[in-house]
Design brief:
The complex is a heterotrimer of chains A (157), B (665) and C (184). Chain A has 157 residues and is mainly α. Chain A folds into two domains: 26-96, Helicase, Ruva Protein, domain 3 (Orthogonal Bundle); 103-153, no CATH class. Chain A is built from six helices and no strands. Chain C has a five-stranded mixed β-sheet with strand order 5-4-3-6-7, covered by helices on one side. Chain C has a two-stranded antiparallel ribbon with strand order 1-2. Classes of the chains: A mainly alpha (157), B alpha+beta (665), C alpha/beta (184). Chains in contact: A-B, A-C, B-C. The interface between A and C is medium-sized, with 17 and 20 residues.
C-alpha cells in the first residue's frame, strides 16, 4: 500500500517537468496561434449560444479568429484587439465584463461576499472563544428554568 | 390509440396516486401519530417505485420497438439508431429525463422506507420524500406528458439530439447526475423532518450520513464525466467552459462539499446546527434552480437541450421549496441556534469553518456570475455577458485557499492543536511546498497560478505523507507487524478517514491536470493538403487520406492523420464530422491520442467535401489532461471505500441505536 | 420570528421576481442592440455580383453614398432559411423606394459559395446591388449576431435602427419613411 502511495507520488512529481516541457518547446507560429485562441477565448461568439470565439467551430468564429490573427500581424496589442470587437459588438461580446458601470457589481460583490464571510466567521469565533473561556458558575435563572423544563419533558435533541 | 401509450399513462398516473398518498397519508399519519397510516404511507414508496419502474420499462419498450404512436418516441427516436442509443434516448430530452429522475427518486425513497432506522424523524422524512416525488411524477404525468398519442403515426422520427448520440458517455453522465441530485434529496428530507419535529440535533445527520456521501459521490462523478464528455464532443479540446449549465451543476456540488465537511463539526463538536440545515436546504434548492435555469431557456447555454413547457412549473416548485424550507428554518431559529463554544481557531473545526466560508463564497460568485446578465437586463434592459475569464478570476484565489486548508485541516486535531506537533507538521508541509514550487520554477513555469498550484500540491502531499506516517509509525513501534500490514489494518478500521485521504489525493491529481491543461495548452489551426504533412509540437501530422463512411443512421466525413515522431508513426487519428439522419446539424467529432504527459487532440475545423483536396485541422496539445479523469476516478474510488460498512460505521450505528432505545424507554 | 419570516419571504419573492422576468422576456439572445446605434457606420468597398457591374462597375464603394443618401444594408447567406423568406419583400420595397434610399445586399458568412449566391439572387431576381463579403470582415465590422440582419442608415451616415431576423415589406416601408422623413 505504501509503495503504491509512493508510486502515485512519483507520477505527480513527473508531471512537473512534463508541464514545463509544454512551455519550453514553442516556436513563433505556436505563440501566435496560442495568442489567437487566448484572445478568442475572451470574446463571445455572436452567432452561437454561450460559446467563445476561441472554442466555437462556427463559421463566424473562424473568421473572427482570422481577424484576430491579422490584427496581431499588424502589431496590435491585446487590449486594442478586444476594443476593436467591443466597438463593433458592444460590451456583450466581452466574456470578461469590463470593470466599469453596472459591470462593477459582478466584480465587487464576490469580494464583498468573501470579506463578509470572513468577518462573520471571525465575529462568531470570538464569541465562541469567549464562551469557551467563560466560567461555568454564572448560571442565571432563565437557564436554570430551561434546564428544568427540558428535564421534565424528557431528552430531546 | 396507442396501447403502450395508454399503459405508460396508466402506470404514471398510478405512480402519481401512490406518491400523493405517501404525501397526504404520511403527513396526516405523522401529525396524528397514527401507526397504521404511517405504515400505509411507507408502503406507498415501494408502490410508487414499482409503478415508476413499469413506466420506465414501458417507455424503453416503446423506444426499442420504434412505437412512434408515443409522442416522446416520435419526437426523439429513430428506427436506424443503434440499440444503446435507443435505450439512452430515455434521458435525451426533457420529458424522458423527468421520467428517469422520478424513477431514481422513487428508488431512493423505497430503499429509504425499508432501511431507515425507526426514529421519530422517519415518518416526516418519508413524507418530504413523497412531496418531492409527487412533483417529479406530477410534471411528466400532467404537464410534460411523454406518453401522448400521436396520430397519424409517423413512420420515422428525427432521432435524439446529435450532440448526445455522438458519444457513449451520454449513457453515463446524466444518469450519474440524477443519482447525485436525487441522493442529496434524502438528507434534505431528513433536515426538513428535523425542523418539523423540532429535533435539530445530530440525529438527522447521522441517519443520512451515507446517503449524503452517496449523493455527493455521484454528483462528483457526474461533473467529471460531463467534463470528459465535453472534451470528446465539443471539439475545442477543453472540458469546462463555465457555461451556465455547467455552473448550475457545480453549485449544489459546492454546497454539498461544504456540507459533508461541516457535518463532521456538528457530529464531533455539536456546533453549526443551523448552518448544516441551511447548507442542505441550499444544496437541494440549488438542484431545483439549476434544473429550472437549464430547462427554461432563461440563460443561454450550449447544453440547453430543448425548452419544454416546464419552466414556470420548475420555477414555482423552486420558490415553494425554497420559501417553505427557509421559512421552517426561520421559524425554528431559536431552537437551532448554536450555543456552542470554540477552544481555539487553529483546530480541525476552525479549518473546516474557514473552508466552508470559501466554498460558500465560491457558490455565491458562481451563482452571481451565472444570473448576473439576467439581473442587469431586469435592471437596465442591457444584454451583458459574464464568461470564463470572470469565473476563472473569481474562483482561482478561492481554490488556492481551499487547497491550502485541505492540506492543513486533516492534520489538526479537534478542539486545539498542541503547538509542538503543529509546528513540526507545518515545517514539513512548508518544505514540501517549497520543493514543489522551486522545482516547478526550475522547470520553467512562470505564471503565478500554476506555480501556486504546484506549491500547494507539494504542501498537500507532505500533509498526506504526515497523515499516513502519523498513524503507521506509532503502530509499528508497538507490534511486530510490517508497514503494509499496519497500513492495511488502519485503512480497514478507519474507512471514512482513509477514504477521505484517497479522495483528497484524487483532488490533488485533478488539480495538477487542470493546471497543466489550462495553463500550458497549445492551440493551432493547421491547413494540410491531403497527402502532405505539417509539423505540430514535435510531431509531423500526415494527412494520409480523407474518408466518408455511411451507416444507416449516420454519415461521417473526415481525415486520416498519421502522427509521426522521430521518424516513427506513433498513432493514427481520424477526426471527422458526423451528420445524423433526421438532423441538420453537423457534429464535429474530434480524435484524441491519450498520453500521461499530454494529449494530442485533432478536430476538423472545416467540413471535408468530396472535391476538397485539403483539410483544416484544429490541433490542441493539452498537457496532463488525462490526470483529471484519473484523479476523478481516484476520488470516486475513495468515496466508494468510505462507504463500505466498517467497524467505525457499525459502532456509530450501535451507539445511535443505544441512545435511541434509552430515549424511548 | 416575524422579522425572520419577513426576510425569508422577501428574499424568496426577489428571486422569484427575477426569474419570472427571465421567463417572460423569452430567449436571452434575441434583439441585442447594435453597438453602432446613432453613431456613424463604417464605409466599405466590396466586389459586386456580375449582373450589377453594368450599373456600378466591378465593386461597390459605399463611401461615395454614405453621408449623402439614406441606405438600407441587408445581410444574407445562401444557407439561411429566413433570408429566402424576406428576399421578395426586399425586392418589392426596392422597386417602390429604390429611388429614395440606396439598397445594398451583402452575402456574408458564406465563404466560397458564390455559385449559391448567384442562384439566390437569380431566384428572386434581385434588382438592387448585392456584394460579396467573402471573409465576413464586413459582418464583423457591422457587429452581426446572425443572418439575416438589416441596417437602416440615415442620410447623415448614422445608424437609425437594426433589425434582426427577416424583414417584411411593411417594416421596410415604415423605416424608409422614417429615414426620408416623408409621408406615405
Amino acid at each position: 500500500m505504501k509503495r503504491a502511495v509512493f508510486g502515485w507520488l512519483a507520477i505527480v512529481l513527473l508531471a512537473v517537468p512534463a508541464a514545463a516541457w509544454a512551455q519550453g518547446d514553442s516556436g513563433g507560429v505556436v505563440e501566435l496561434e496560442s495568442r489567437v485562441f487566448e484572445l478568442g477565448r475572451q470574446l463571445r461568439c455572436p452567432t452561437c449560444t454561450s460559446e467563445s470565439v476561441g472554442d466555437s467551430s462556427s463559421a463566424i468564429s473562424i473568421e473572427m479568429r482570422n481577424e484576430i490573427r491579422d490584427q496581431i500581424a499588424l502589431g496590435k496589442s491585446d487590449d486594442e484587439i478586444l476594443a476593436f470587437f467591443q466597438e463593433r459588438y458592444g460590451d456583450w461580446v466581452l466574456l470578461e465584463p469590463p470593470r466599469e458601470g453596472i459591470h462593477l457589481f459582478v466584480w465587487i460583490l464576490p469580494v464583498v461576499g468573501v470579506v463578509a464571510g470572513a468577518a462573520g466567521l471571525a465575529l462568531l469565533m470570538t464569541r465562541w472563544l469567549a464562551k469557551a473561556r467563560a466560567p461555568l458558575d454564572d448560571v442565571n435563572d432563565e437557564d436554570l428554568a430551561r434546564v428544568q423544563a427540558a428535564m421534565k419533558s424528557g431528552p430531546d435533541a | 390509440m396507442s396501447s403502450l401509450g395508454t399503459l405508460g399513462n396508466t402506470t404514471l398516473l398510478l405512480a402519481l396516486a401512490f406518491s400523493l398518498w405517501g404525501l397526504i397519508g404520511g403527513a396526516v399519519g405523522a401529525i396524528r401519530r397514527d401507526r397504521r397510516l404511517i405504515t400505509s404511507a411507507r408502503m406507498a414508496a415501494s408502490a410508487t417505485f414499482l409503478a415508476m419502474t413499469a413506466t420506465v420499462a414501458v417507455m424503453e419498450i416503446a423506444l426499442l420497438t420504434d412505437d412512434f404512436s408515443v409522442s416522446y418516441v416520435a419526437e426523439t427516436s429513430r428506427t436506424t439508431s443503434p440499440i444503446w442509443v435507443k435505450i439512452v434516448t430515455l434521458w435525451a430530452a426533457l420529458e424522458g429525463s423527468l421520467l428517469l429522475w422520478g424513477w431514481l427518486l422513487s428508488g431512493y425513497w423505497a430503499v429509504l422506507s425499508w432501511v431507515a432506522p425507526n426514529t421519530p424523524l422517519k415518518p416526516w422524512a418519508l413524507t418530504v420524500m413523497a412531496g418531492v416525488q409527487t412533483f417529479f411524477v406530477g410534471v411528466p404525468a400532467i404537464a410534460a406528458r411523454p406518453f401522448n398519442s400521436v396520430f397519424p403515426v409517423p413512420l420515422e422520427g428525427p432521432g435524439p439530439n446529435p450532440l448526445l448520440q455522438n458519444h457513449w458517455m451520454m449513457a453515463v453522465h446524466p444518469f450519474l447526475m440524477y443519482l447525485g441530485f436525487v441522493g442529496l434529496t434524502v438528507p434534505f428530507a431528513y433536515a426538513i423532518a428535523a425542523l418539523i419535529t423540532n429535533r435539530p440535533g445530530t440525529e438527522w445527520m447521522l441517519n443520512t450520513r451515507r446517503w449524503t456521501l452517496i449523493g455527493w459521490g455521484f454528483l462528483t462523478a457526474a461533473i467529471i464525466t460531463g467534463g470528459w464528455w465535453s472534451y470528446e464532443v465539443l471539439g475545442w479540446g477543453g472540458y469546462w467552459a463555465w457555461d451556465p449549465v455547467e455552473n448550475v451543476s457545480f453549485l449544489p456540488w459546492l454546497t454539498a462539499t461544504a456540507f459533508i465537511h461541516s457535518i463532521q463539526v456538528q457530529e464531533r463538536r455539536r456546533m453549526l446546527k443551523a448552518w448544516n440545515l441551511l447548507l442542505i436546504i441550499l444544496t437541494f434548492t440549488l438542484t431545483l434552480l439549476g434544473t429550472f435555469l437549464t430547462r427554461s431557456g432563461v440563460v443561454s447555454s450550449v447544453h440547453s437541450f430543448g425548452d419544454g413547457p416546464v419552466g414556470p412549473i420548475f420555477l414555482g416548485f423552486f420558490i415553494v421549496a425554497f420559501g417553505l424550507s427557509m421559512g421552517l428554518l426561520a421559524w425554528r431559529w431559536d431552537h437551532v441556534r448554536d450555543r456552542s463554544d470554540l477552544d481555539h481557531p487553529v483546530s480541525r473545526e476552525g479549518s473546516f469553518l474557514a473552508g466552508n466560508v470559501l466554498f460558500l463564497a465560491m457558490t455565491f460568485a458562481v451563482l452571481l456570475g451565472t444570473i448576473f446578465p439576467l439581473f442587469v437586463e431586469a435592471a437596465t434592459g442591457d444584454k451583458v455577458t459574464v464568461g470564463a475569464p470572470f469565473f476563472d478570476q473569481a474562483t482561482l484565489p478561492l481554490w488556492m485557499g481551499i487547497l491550502f486548508l485541505m492540506g492543513i485541516g486533516p492534520l489538526l486535531p479537534w478542539r486545539r492543536a498542541p503547538d509542538q506537533t503543529l509546528r513540526g507538521n507545518l515545517l514539513w508541509m512548508a518544505l514540501g511546498a517549497v520543493v514543489f514550487g522551486v522545482a516547478s520554477f526550475a522547470f520553467g513555469m512562470r505564471a503565478i497560478y500554476p506555480l501556486l498550484t504546484m506549491t500547494l500540491v507539494g504542501w498537500n502531499l507532505a500533509s498526506l505523507v504526515l497523515l499516513v506516517t502519523g498513524v503507521v509509525v506509532p503502530r509499528l513501534k508497538i507490534g511486530q507487524r510490517g508497514v503494509a500490514q499496519v497500513l492495511r489494518q488502519y485503512a480497514f478500521e478507519n474507512k471514512r478517514r482513509f477514504g477521505s485521504m484517497v479522495v483528497h489525493f484524487g483532488v490533488l491529481v485533478m488539480a495538477v491536470g487542470i493546471m497543466g491543461s489550462s495553463a500550458y495548452r497549445v492551440d493551432e489551426q493547421i491547413r494540410i493538403d491531403i497527402g502532405s504533412s505539417a509539423p505540430f509540437q514535435g510531431y509531423i501530422l500526415h494527412a494520409r487520406d480523407k474518408f466518408m463512411e455511411q451507416t444507416p443512421g449516420r454519415i461521417s466525413a473526415g481525415a486520416v492523420v498519421d502522427l509521426e515522431r522521430d521518424g516513427q508513426i506513433v498513432t493514427t487519428l481520424r477526426p471527422r464530422t458526423n451528420v445524423f439522419a433526421g438532423q441538420e446539424m453537423t457534429v464535429p467529432t474530434p480524435s484524441v491520442m491519450y498520453r500521461p504527459n499530454y494529449d494530442i487532440y485533432l478536430n476538423v475545423a472545416s467540413t471535408v467535401g468530396p472535391e476538397q483536396d485539403f483539410v483544416v485541422l484544429r490541433a490542441v496539445m493539452s498537457p496532463l489532461i488525462t490526470w483529471i479523469w484519473i484523479g476523478g476516478l481516484i476520488a470516486a474510488l475513495g468515496t466508494a471505500y468510505a462507504l463500505v460498512p466498517g467497524v467505525q460505521g457499525a459502532r456509530a450505528t450501535r451507539d445511535l441505536k443505544r441512545g435511541l432505545e434509552a430515549s424511548q424507554t | 420570528m416575524i422579522r425572520r419570516l419577513v426576510i425569508v419571504a422577501s428574499v424568496t419573492a426577489a428571486l422569484g421576481g427575477l426569474f419570472l422576468f427571465g421567463l417572460l422576456r423569452g430567449s436571452p439572445d434575441r434583439d441585442i442592440e447594435s453597438a453602432r446605434l446613432n453613431r456613424p457606420v463604417p464605409a466599405f468597398e466590396l466586389p459586386l455580383y456580375e449582373r450589377y457591374h453594368a450599373s456600378f462597375g466591378p465593386t461597390l464603394d459605399v463611401g461615395s453614398y454614405l453621408g449623402e443618401v439614406p441606405m438600407i444594408v441587408n445581410f444574407w447567406a445562401s444557407w439561411c432559411g429566413p433570408c429566402y423568406e424576406e428576399a421578395p419583400d426586399l425586392q418589392a420595397a426596392w422597386e417602390d423606394f429604390g429611388g429614395q434610399v440606396l439598397f445594398v445586399g451583402v452575402q456574408t458568412q458564406d465563404r466560397g459559395r458564390q455559385q449559391e449566391g448567384r442562384d439566390f439572387i437569380d431566384q428572386f431576381n434581385l434588382g438592387f446591388a448585392n456584394v460579396i463579403d467573402d471573409d465576413s470582415s464586413l459582418s464583423i465590422e457591422y457587429g452581426l449576431f446572425g443572418v439575416p440582419e438589416t441596417f437602416f442608415i440615415r442620410a447623415d451616415g448614422t445608424l437609425a435602427y437594426k433589425h434582426a431576423g427577416p424583414v417584411t415589406y411593411e417594416l421596410l416601408e415604415e423605416q424608409v419613411l422614417a429615414l426620408t422623413g416623408g409621408t406615405p
